[in-house]
Specification:
The complex is a heterodimer of chains A (348) and B (280). Chain A has 348 residues and is an alpha+beta fold. Chain A has eight helices and 19 strands. In chain A, strands 6-7-8-3-9-10 form a six-stranded mixed sheet, with helices on both faces. Chain B is mainly α. Chain B has two domains: 53 residues, no CATH class; 169 residues, MetI-like (MetI-like fold, Orthogonal Bundle). Helix content of chain B is 71%, strand content 0%. In chain B, helix 9 crosses helix 10. Chain B is globular, with a radius of gyration of 23 Å. The chains are: A alpha+beta (348), B mainly alpha (280). Chains A and B meet through strand 6 of A and helix 9 and helix 10 of B.
Chain lengths: 348, 280
């Protein structure tokens, strides 16, 4: 186990800047998730930590060593790839013991470590099989086995669940989290799936266009997004964002006036954010015309038009309204997010 | 292959394939059957598809007229060395062109490929001069060195490069994380996975070397040094006329390794070329 520190890390391909100075400190044993839309630079950053990409500027430290110029094999890291990257011509056991073999471990030690990892990951009965004879989930477990077998200081995961079906993803999510809790190894995990990020991370690094938008715990990001990007990215269904102006204790948007939390001192152009579950049905609420009702069983998701804005509400109640009918809703004033119209930064 | 053809169409297709097969099979059939006919029966008209009389002494005569066993060995060991050498050179060069970034790699590869466009007849005289200067005329060195570093190897390099390009980059990255350097990645990861392409390279390199004709007649002058294609031209009577039945017996024996290679390895050959996008 070791802390990982990224200091002003930049990456450029010629004139094209990919990462614009990333600063992240990852504590010893922490599970950190890099999340962001495709092309935001999260995988590039992970590959730079692994040593598979060069660093244009800045420092990466693993433990007390600057590893900028070290080969991947010398960084004491293990990586799980998106497509597993199992060696097709080797059995599961050989795949798992391969790195130890090339580091000069004895046969007895390799066998012992492989058995240990196989027991943890329930792979003991598959050790003589080839990767082509395994299911997607089993391959993923072998890839994890290969990573844990040599007890590295840092685990790196590059979208490891993206090739699995939805059900298996949930299972493997739990297995990876369980593995981390058991081994306590510092883990950097890349995903574009914000649910994966929310459920697995100790802290999340939200990235966009090569920059860090916010770093924080999953609920911190959910409850207090630092800016419009994070507000829109974290949460499913996404937060409703309405453009308008703050005038006194009211927020005036196109065709609707919304109440604001008390004590707000700012005014002028802003964005009003409210999560779908923070709308409440109320007879004295604002009128909204229903366009779609999606019953989920435990809750009901309603798409509706509020003033001139299309918004989504999620209600614990069963909503009986039909498309075209009007319901009345009120925002929970303790859960309203306000963002500066120009900078997109949070202002409340 | 889909098999939802109607029985009538299927019969028609098989019939057509049988007809198309004739020009390919007939020469081989004629070679084998004529090798056991008396010479007077070979040119009988209409030709006999099955010999009326069998004369197996032709096969014995092949070894009496020429040091045929020695020539057979010459062809075999030269083909084996050329095959092994080409596999080594082409796999390493193909890997380098496919996976290692170095300045002008694509341009250099194009220049290498251009070598395929130059007929061997154009370079044979300069090569003769070169090997003469090196004291290698009437030795087997030219027949070994020219294919390994010449056009056959260029084609093999192309095949290997195409295969290595398709190899997932993540495998190499995983190997780097596992502690392997460039050569070990090539040796323990890339090369074992390249077996189908290597198989294809081995087959066509072996066949090319086995069938090499122009180079032996330029570089070799003593019958002890001859290879089989060159030896086949030596079965002539006192007037220079071909001793057809003996020549065809020698040709039949010459073709045996080629047929065996195709029968045993045709699947490998097709798979290897399929991997490189060269099929069909």
């Amino acid at each position: 186990m070791a802390p990982v520190s990224l200091h002003s890390v930049r990456k450029a391909y010629g004139e094209v800047q990919i990462l614009h100075g990333i600063d992240v400190d990852i504590a010893d044993g922490e599970f950190i998730v890099l999340v962001g839309p495709s092309g935001c630079g999260k995988s590039t950053l992970l590959r730079m930590i692994a040593g598979l990409e060069t660093i244009t500027k800045g420092d990466i430290r693993i433990g007390d060593r600057v590893v900028n110029d070290l080969e991947p094999k010398d960084r004491d890291i293990a990586m799980v790839f998106q497509n597993y990257a199992l060696y097709p011509h080797m059995t599961v056991a050989t795949n798992m013991g391969f790195s130890l073999e090339h580091r000069g471990a004895s046969k007895a030690e390799i066998a012992e470590r492989v058995k240990w990892a196989a027991d943890i990951l329930d792979l003991s009965h598959l050790l003589d099989r080839y990767p082509r004879q395994l299911s997607g989930g089993q391959r993923q477990r072998v890839a994890m086995g290969r990573a844990i077998v040599r007890n590295p200081q840092v685990f790196l995961f590059d979208e490891p669940l993206s090739n699995l079906d939805a059900k298996l993803r949930v299972v493997m999510r739990g297995e990876i989290k369980g593995l981390h809790q058991r081994l306590g190894v510092t883990t950097v995990y890349v995903t574009h799936d914000q649910i994966e990020a929310m459920t697995m991370a100790d802290r999340i690094v939200v990235m966009n266009a090569g920059k860090v938008e916010q770093i924080g715990g999953p609920l911190e990001l959910y409850d207090r997004p630092a800016n419009l990007f994070v507000a829109g990215f974290i949460g499913s269904p996404a937060m409703n964002i309405l453009g308008g102006t703050i005038e006194g204790a009211q927020f005036k948007a196109a065709g609707v006036t919304l109440p604001l939390p008390a004590g707000l001192t700012t005014s002028g152009a802003a964005s009003y954010g409210i999560r779908p579950e923070h709308f409440q049905l109320s007879p004295v609420g604002l009128p909204a015309v229903v366009s779609l009702v999606e019953p989920m069983g435990s809750e009901t998701q309603v798409t509706m038009t509020l003033g001139e804005h299309v918004v989504t509400g999620v209600f614990r109640e069963r909503v009986a309204a039909r498309p075209g009918e009007t319901i009345h809703i009120l925002p929970d004033l303790t859960a309203v997010h306000l963002f500066d119209a120009k900078t997109g930064q949070r202002i409340n | 292959m889909r098999t939802d053809l109607s029985p009538r169409l299927r019969v028609a297709l098989y019939g057509l394939m049988c007809v198309l097969l004739i020009p390919f099979v007939f020469p081989t059939w004629w070679m084998i059957t004529s090798s056991v006919k008396p010479i007077s029966d070979i040119f009988a008209f209409p030709p006999d598809l099955w010999p009326r009389r069998f004369d197996f002494s032709t096969y014995q005569r092949v070894f009496e007229l020429q040091p045929f066993a020695r020539q057979y060995w010459n062809s075999a060991y030269i083909a084996a060395i050329v095959t092994a050498g080409t596999m080594v050179v082409s796999s390493m060069a193909g890997y380098a062109f496919a996976r290692i970034k170095f300045p002008f790699s694509n341009a250099i590869f194009m220049v290498v490929l251009l070598g395929l466009l130059i007929p061997s007849e154009v370079t044979i005289v300069p090569l003769f001069q070169m090997f003469l200067g090196w004291g290698m005329i009437n030795t087997h060195w030219p027949l070994i060195l020219v294919p390994i570093f010449g056009a056959p190897s260029v084609f093999a390099t192309f095949v290997m490069r195409q295969f290595f390009i398709a190899l997932p980059g993540e495998l190499e990255e995983a190997a780097r994380v596992d502690g392997l350097g460039r050569f070990k990645i090539f040796w323990t990861i890339a090369l074992p996975l390249a077996k189908p392409a290597l198989g294809a390279v081995a087959i066509f390199t072996f066949l090319h070397s086995w069938n090499l004709y122009l180079e032996p007649i330029v570089f070799l002058s003593s019958t002890q040094m001859f290879t089989l294609p060159q030896a086949l031209t030596q079965f002539t009577d006192a007037y220079g006329g071909a001793m057809w039945n003996i020549q065809l017996a020698a040709a039949t024996m010459t073709a045996i390794p080629v047929l065996l290679v195709f029968i045993v390895a045709q699947k490998q050959f097709v798979e290897g070329l399929a991997h490189t996008g060269l099929k069909g």
